[in-house]
Specification:
Helices cover about 50% and strands about 10% of the residues. The protein is an alpha+beta fold. The strands form two sheets. A six-stranded mixed beta sheet has the order 1-6-7-4-3-2, with helices on both faces. A three-stranded mixed beta sheet has the order 5-9-8, with helices on one face. The radius of gyration is 24 Å and the shape is globular.
């Protein structure tokens, strides 16, 4: 949309354009100097490594604003071009995209899209081992920050509706423009621009790697069909939008299965963010809850379309005359301040240092005291199978105490596989065993399972933070550590929270 002739040529033959720009850089206008007259957004173009090094202070760690990916770090840097335009630069490893032609084609496909509800992609760099995407920079943080880590005020109801509506519009735009697949849609992908308006990050429109492994978030929030076949479909995107609606309603991470149980039980008020304190319309909340329930249907064909999302949310009141930055409680054109660090508990300190020995000592001392209330055994018969299962847990505990972590994994796996009884402590202990055996992916899965069993258990979040750090996802690890610390403070103030 609004591309110049050279951009159109490159859209058809990106690898040829890449070769041309390498040979004749002086024949092309500098990146981001050609604006689309309809949107005011720069036309999509190729950047040089030197442009992006200069913009990001040689990819300084001080400029990192987020990161992601499963095994290879995909860092996002804040930068500023010579024309003073702020940009976000996402850096991939060459192993994620070994073929430069394939990377360029993917980037050009995403770069064609232009919409006011997107943080638009304005360019890419594919030079030697470098694989970089360049997008508009959004200075006012993510939905996750404003919902889960707020400092001054929580998001008011009208703003939550506006977020839902704008992101539904963004997804509908992507779908109507032939890009219906969005990878790993979550509250970290919703960004706020200089006016405080929510926008959808364009980075999620492009796969994290050529193999398309797309979900790096908690397994409890992953579309069920992705767990079955590892593929993202347009219906998977609708499911993920449903999880964002849950975030907006509740102000916290609630596993969809748990939320659906509350919805079926007509416990809508329990689902709502307590800080809203009745400052919302029950009728509107019911509409959003109903839409979330439809988005989270197990069968993909039963979920609504993007047009249904827009049509359902559009009639709800969103204070159209009030600017977004006013509702967010931020100053226009000003970046939100960083989250202050809370003081860490001994467990938090050990996790921040990735001190697995200290974590082991704490878990041994804690034993199973946090498992109270996570098991419902009243209808279970005391069978031989139950005795065998508890015996395997006991053997696992002895091995864990004696630091025989491979044996502990085997014994705890026998306990878990029977499935009669669930224990967050067993998942946390096996998570640590996996970390000590250099298996951070498995460790992260177990820590997530512990959270599913006990959604507000600090240890589950602590273990996720260590596993994420081991996977070089340091921003996500810091967020998890912060969340664990907040939950621990809450638990100490009011007893066991669940």
């Amino acid at each position: 949309m609004g591309c110049c002739a050279s951009s159109f040529l490159a859209e058809t033959h990106p690898e040829k354009d890449h070769q041309n720009k390498q040979s004749h850089p002086q024949n092309h206008p500098s990146p981001s100097s050609v604006l689309d007259p309809a949107t005011g957004v720069p036309s999509f173009s190729e950047f040089s490594v030197s442009d992006l090094k200069a913009a990001t202070n040689n990819f300084s760690s001080d400029n990192i604003v987020s990161e992601g990916g499963e095994k290879a770090p995909n860092l996002v840097y804040k930068g500023r071009l010579q024309n003073r335009r702020w940009i976000a630069v996402k850096k991939f490893t060459k192993s994620a995209w070994p073929d430069p032609k394939q990377f360029a084609e993917e980037a050009w496909g995403v770069g064609k899209l232009r919409h006011k509800r997107l943080a638009n992609l304005i360019g890419y760099c594919c030079d030697g081992d470098e694989r970089l995407l360049v997008a508009e920079f959004m200075p006012n943080d993510t939905l996750a920050k404003h919902l889960f880590h707020w400092e001054n005020q929580t998001i008011e109801w009208a703003m939550r509706l506006r977020v839902a509506f704008y992101i539904a519009e963004a997804l509908d735009c992507c779908s109507s423009q032939g890009r219906p697949l969005y990878h790993d849609l979550n509250a970290y992908r919703v960004l706020f621009d200089e006016d405080g308006d929510p926008r959808l990050s364009c980075f999620g429109m492009m796969k994290n790697s050529r193999d398309g492994k797309s979900y790096s978030t908690n397994l409890a929030y992953t579309p069920p069909e992705y767990l079955r076949n590892g593929r993202v479909t347009p219906e998977s995107v609708i499911y993920s939008f449903g999880t964002i609606l849950l975030d907006l309603l509740s102000g916290k991470h609630i596993p969809p299965s748990h939320a659906l149980d509350m919805i079926r039980g007509k416990n809508i008020i329990l689902l709502m963010e307590s800080h809203l304190e009745g400052n919302f319309s029950t009728e509107e909340a019911t509409v959003v809850v109903d839409l979330a329930s439809k988005c989270l249907q197990y069968e993909p064909r039963e979920r609504p379309s993007t047009k249904d999302l827009v049509a359902t949310i559009a009639p709800l009141r969103m204070k159209p005359d009030v600017p977004s930055y006013v509702m967010l409680g931020i100053s226009k054109h000003e970046e939100a301040p960083p989250t202050p660090q809370r003081p860490l508990s001994p467990m938090g300190e050990a996790c921040s240092r990735m001190d697995l020995t200290a974590i082991h000592q704490i878990l041994v001392m804690t034993h199973y005291k946090d498992d109270e209330g996570t098991n419902e055994l009243s209808f279970q018969e005391w069978t031989q199978q139950m005795r065998d299962m508890l015996e395997s847990r006991k053997r696992g505990d002895f091995a864990f105490r004696d630091k025989d972590f491979k044996t502990a994994i085997d014994c705890y796996s026998q306990f878990i596989d029977v499935g009669t009884m669930v224990s967050p402590t067993v998942f946390a202990r096996r998570s640590l065993c996996y970390l000590l055996n250099d298996q951070p992916d498995a460790a992260l899965r177990d820590a997530m399972q512990a959270q599913c069993v006990y959604p507000e258990w600090p240890t589950a979040f602590y273990m996720q933070s260590v596993a994420l750090a081991k996977l070089d996802m340091h921003n996500d690890a810091a967020d998890m550590l912060n969340e664990a610390t907040a939950l621990e403070e809450k638990k100490q103030r009011g007893g066991k929270g669940s």
